[in-house]
Write a structure and sequence with these properties.
Radius of gyration: 16 Å
Number of strands: 8
CATH superfamily: Alpha/Beta hydrolase fold, catalytic domain
Strand content: 15-25%
Number of domains: 1
Strand order of the largest sheet: 1-2-4-3-5-6-7-8
Structural class: alpha/beta
């Protein structure tokens, strides 16, 4: 139901994405950031679901057209490590947020895995954002600390995760609380990537609960 679009970065360069519009006009916006696989059909499908829920949803392509197949985690890891987090956040993500906010709409941000990491960075560095939802991603503190976060966050983590381990999640939650930052954090008895229905670690029950919480959070903060 969506279309491919090109939008301007703050530096004037072009970036690309997938846009799904809500049926009603003047809808709030949500930028969606993909996992380390890139702009998969699954991410486009999440934009379609957000549009049906009443949001204009724009998935921002962080890899400039590169999509990594699920059977090649080594390539995904290389793309992930090669990504300039600051450029991706302050140029691609901010450009996507500005695109959705151009008619005065409030805009939120959500991201998964790599996209979750970028969501936390953007929460500190993209001034046009109103709220963010993080899925199993963690930002390096030398890039963005919890104390720098400027918007309300909701976060979803898996208890069986060898990247965002329970210990790291606890430390993130404690740091956010110590800094007095608004955070709703949820843990699930699931594996990393549990929202992605195209992956074997998908957990339908956990994914649907998390999705419902996400929509409720965005409706509260974006209208």
């Amino acid at each position: 139901m969506g279309i491919s679009v090109t939008f301007k970065r703050p530096d004037g360069k072009n970036a690309s994405g997938y846009l799904a519009n809500a049926a009603s006009g003047n809808a709030p916006g949500v930028v969606v950031l993909p996992e380390w696989w890139g702009m998969s059909d699954q991410i486009r499908g999440l934009c379609d679901r957000l549009a049906l829920a009443g949001f204009d949803a724009l998935a921002a392509d962080l890899y400039n057209g590169k999509v990594v197949p699920y059977h090649d985690p080594d390539s995904a890891d290389r793309e992930n490590k090669a990504l300039d987090l600051i450029d991706a956040t302050t140029q691609i993500v901010r450009g996507a947020v500005q695109y959705l906010a151009r008619n005065g709409a409030k805009v939120g941000l959500t991201g998964f895995c790599l996209g979750g990491k970028v969501t936390i960075v953007a929460a500190a560095k993209v001034p046009e954002l109103t709220a963010g939802v993080v899925f199993y991603g963690m930002a390096p503190e030398h890039v963005a600390t919890p104390a720098e976060v400027k918007i309300p966050l909701q976060a979803h983590f898996a208890n069986t995760d060898d990247w965002c381990t329970p210990q790291l999640v606890d430390a993130f939650e404690n740091s956010m609380n110590s800094a007095g930052k608004p955070l709703e954090l949820f843990r699930y008895d699931a594996e990393h990537g549990f929202v992605n229905e195209q992956r074997p670690e998908h957990d339908r029950k956990a994914a649907e609960v998390a999705w419902g919480r996400t929509l409720e959070f965005f409706r509260k903060h974006l209208g």
